[in-house]
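Minutes, project check-in

Agenda point 3 was the complex the collaborators sent over. CS summarized: four entities, 412 residues total, and the question is how they sit relative to each other. Sequences were read into the notes so everyone works from the same version.
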Amino acid sequence: MASTTRRRSAQVGRPTTAEAGILAATRRLLVNGASFTEMGVQEICAEAGVARSTFYSHFRDKIDLILRLTTDLTGSAFETTTAWEPADGLDRLAETFENVLRIYRDQAPLRRAITEVATYDVSVREVWANELKQFTDRTIEMIRTEQKAGRAPATIDAVAVTRVVVVGGEQAIVDQATAGDPADDAVFARELAETWWYGVFRRPPG
Amino acid sequence: MASTTRRRSAQVGRPTTAEAGILAATRRLLVNGASFTEMGVQEICAEAGVARSTFYSHFRDKIDLILRLTTDLTGSAFETTTAWEPADGLDRLAETFENVLRIYRDQAPLRRAITEVATYDVSVREVWANELKQFTDRTIEMIRTEQKAGRAPATIDAVAVTRVVVVGGEQAIVDQATAGDPADDAVFARELAETWWYGVFRRPPG
DNA sequence: CTACGTCCGGACATCGCGTCCGGAAATAAG
DNA sequence: CTTATTTCCGGACGCGATGTCCGGACGTAG
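CS then shared the predicted structure for the full assembly.
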């Protein structure tokens, strides 16, 4: 419980508070390739130079920790992608994916951890699905607009194709960011952009 | 150690051996929506009506169990997809995806469990990646063939676009199979097929 | 009957989790 | 300086799950 009469310690604090230390240590361990599921609280605390009991006075459990970490990557990638719209054209779409890929490379370990936990924990899965939802909604809207303007075939099922685009695209980007060579990022981004462009937004009329 | 003088029991055996019982029980629990990571050995044995010690005389640990389960879905989906080739055209591709979706719906719980464990266990991840590899290799080959025949643009980077197609496509199918309405399967399959067809195999020349 | 293989049931050590508490250290208020 | 308050340490505790081990029951094949 925070005091009402005192300001919280470490106001501009050099002596990094334990909570921030734990967050940073976890990120560090993830960057080093550790699996979040398999790393213990003990291990995290050792890396943070903090007592194990201190961990539990800041986080309810490991799920709470990963959820707190999730907050850090709100926006960024989503903002980048949602800035693009069909009128910007194919080249700008490829550029957008290249930027997203850059962001994903930075955040890769953390994103990996989140999807990792999301596969078996409901609360994390829900948080993550919600992050994707805003993106899904926007894509559906964009496709419908293109259809009304006659630039995309009216026969496209916007909802179904959005599943292909968002779910599939996200996974492909994650895969490239984790397993692919950074030198190939530009080529990959271009291919992803062209596939979507000619396969969806400018698909030839049936 | 198996006897050399006696044949192994249960040769055609009705009295279902404990091992098969455990395998079946695990599958049953997965179908009921349980998370493999979160279900204990105790739980599995209770469902199988088997002593916990018996589990360990058949499986080294839970990873061994999931690996043994993986064997069950060799082929099937892969065989179905690799049967298709570009000469068969768009309609047949849509049909193929519909079939794959049917298979995935049957195997969904097991596949979910495997990808679940694959996110944090190396051995499972390797086995799974190897399953996908044969599919990846074939796709790259198909695209190159189309390029040589002048039916697909020579500018396509076969390796990069295959990542988009295989990794992204697999995930989209899994998502539709787990979260999508079965009634929408045909529409989804059609959209996936058209996206690939016009976005990759028959992408307009740059 | 005997040898063998399979399974049960329970004991055991071990480990990680989450809780709890007394006390040290640092810091701000009086 | 003294005191109150916050933060953290360090360790104890109970709990549940893991993986190992063993004695013995049971059925079956020689």
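Noted in discussion: Chain A touches chain B through 41 residues (CB under 8 Å).
Follow-up: revisit at the next meeting once the mutant set is ready.
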